[in-house]
Amino acid sequence: MPTRGGAPVIESIVGPDLPPARAVELVADLHRLLDELQTVDLSPCTDAELTEVAAATERAITRLTVAGDRQIDHAEARDLPRTTGCRTLTQFMTHRLRISNPVRRRKQMDATATRTSLGGEKLPPEHPCLAEAFAQGTVGTAHVQAALDVLDRIPGTVDHDVKVAAERQMTEIAEAHTPADITQLGARLLAHLDPDGTLTDDTERKRRRNLWVNRQRADGTAKMTGTLTPELAARVTMLLAVWATPGMNNPNDPDSPTGSVEDADPEQLAAAADRDDRTPAQINHDALNALLKAVLDDGLLGKSHRGLPVQLIIKADLADLIREAGLATTATGTLLPIPDLIALAADVQPWLAIFKDHTAVPLHFGRGKRLATREQRLVSFARPDGEVCSAPGCDQPATHVELHHAHKDWAKGGLTDIDDLAPACPRHNRMVGPKLGQYTTRIARSGTDEGRCVWRLNAEPGAPPNPEHLNRRPDIPTRLTAHLEQVRREIHGRNMSGAEARPDPLLVWPIIDYRPIVIRPLKPGQVYTPVEACLAELLAQN
Q1: What does the pLDDT read at residue 130?
Q2: pTM, 2 dp
Q3: CA-CA distance, 67 to 61, in Å (whole number)?
Q4: Domain boundary among 448, 469, 490
């Protein structure tokens, strides 16, 4: 989006002869005021005036959120998420509106915004009192979220009039207290509504069940949160009782027994337990990891998923494998440190593919096959950015995508050749077509993006064509190298070694035609070649 003086400039697309919509003019005026407000001299303000200005600014921020919620509702009513190529409203909010936590924002909108149904009917907010206070700016976003966390925990069997009274009570609390106070006082309200817990039935427990694996942190770890039904809680606690015992399933101890404590040798277990310095939480983590590893090894998850084998499928840069540093990527989009990848490969669990510049497997079928083969899917995953859907802004991982005939649709004579295929999630694959709001795709045949899928949103007949887009994921190492070079030049003029600062050399792989060398789980009687020997062989060949 173009900017002027740090503020975005909204360009009207109605044409040069028509005035912009009033909303466009208001937002432009708002940004002009914000430019002045950010730089205005505050020294003439008295203490009381400065306090009031700060408080009024916070109220304005809240009211802007209310206005934004209304605009999101209108965008959803016009089906803008679909016509802009997003799979869901949440994705539209994330990628087009840059909203940091769209799930919580949608929950807030349902509670406090007037929504529009598919039939055009206006739907009142779920919590009208809280919505009114939010619109006036007397409660902020954090207050609303804290109040909703309390109201959502009211049992479903509570009478409607009691729920309405509780909502009004929580609104009063939100207007006069901090978010932390809201949580504490809300707990007292819940205890008053259901002092002995008899109002919480099985239906309520099922409504509140959830399990989330959150996004990975910078170090690759991820936090899991959930609310378990009594049935699942019973199974999990039984698992921990027999697998999460000190000395069992310890990845730091090669002599630690694996599996259930009932199958372990008592003397071996006792010795391993004496060496075990893990915390109870770490023991629980390792027990769950060992159980899922056993499930994968036994093939209980099936033989294939969307054409890919149901195993860990991982791609890595050969240079990273050699220096045992960096990150690999799994088909589910998880980042895996290279040392962990090598440990997995040594245990003969994943599919570890190392790619060369030529191919010895059939990757071109023409009209002989309509659906992509397993080998084609593995090669597609191994391409640059092949771990996600090729549609711009989509982050669906390789395990959730199909292979799309991107150069020419199969029904129009397209070929099932690896250099004509591209990964596309089911929603985006169905959105390719000649109609308005659909996409036209092609494969770039030259340049730095050779072999990648290019997407263009169809425009109205006679209108200028929309720009083409790639799902170009940021090249973090390259950008970091460039920034580091600039910083070193600004500070020292040279890099740390004393030589002229220049970007580190990068290993660039061809776009197409790879030959995968795959390490699969061994069958009885087979001899395993360690991954180090495989790397040594590849280095000798290169």
Answers
A1: 93
A2: 0.54
A3: 10
A4: 469
